[in-house]
Amino acid sequence: MFAASLEVCISAGRLGPPSDEAPRNSSGAKKSKGRGKIRMRKMEKDTNMLVTFSKRKSGLFKKANELCTLCGAECAMMVFSPADKVSSPSTIRPLTT
Amino acid sequence: MFAASLEVCISAGRLGPPSDEAPRNSSGAKKSKGRGKIRMRKMEKDTNMLVTFSKRKSGLFKKANELCTLCGAECAMMVFSPADKVSSPSTIRPLTT
DNA sequence: AGCACTATGTTTAGCTT
DNA sequence: AAAGCTAAACATAGTGC
């Protein structure tokens, strides 16, 4: 395992264009519910940002697990938190040969 | 960078329960459009599986990029393809200090 | 093979508790 | 701060070209 077919992605910070258009909506009033189109740039509010980080990290790990399960792929990923916290996903698995 | 707050996920193969319920639908007829709830186990058809791998890998990289952008996190990921192909995402970035 | 479409399942931002 | 909710945004399996 871990031979030949390898893909790597290392991303440090911004990787896509900022996409600065699209305010919350045309009238400027906030939507009451739902997600509300997000702006692809660093979130300014720290509390929201940490919650979003936690949620999205979970989603990312879940997607990675699904990819492995569905396609018989193998993947490894590391996420460096913006805050000074250490944690590991519950589904961690040792890299056995 | 790359200090202190670190999270690691290494997944080799299956990580979740198979979730064997839910055939396509009760009558056995395929849905004509849309996604149709997928079964979380290795896809048997190789052609579909490769397409799914490609699509989901793209989605995974995109999500990782979004996480980095939105939250100022840093992440690295490696995906080992089930087939013998090598490719890299277009948004690859060197790990500069 | 690879791209476009689209209905539907999934994710998640903002709220509430 | 950490869970749970909801609806809008998003991802994507199957399809057609």
From TrEMBL, chains A, B:
PROSITE patterns in UniProt: MADS_BOX_2 (PS50066)
Protein's cellular compartments: Nucleus
Keyword presence, Nucleus: yes
Chain positions covered by the region annotation Disordered: 13-38
The UniProt record lists the keyword Nucleus: yes
GO MF terms, alphabetically ordered: DNA-binding transcription factor activity, RNA polymerase II-specific; protein dimerization activity; RNA polymerase II cis-regulatory region sequence-specific DNA binding
Domain MADS-box: 33-93
UniProt keyword list: DNA-binding, Nucleus, Transcription, Transcription regulation
Classification via Gene3D superfamilies: Transcription factor, MADS-box
Full protein name: MADS-box domain-containing protein
Source species: Kalanchoe fedtschenkoi
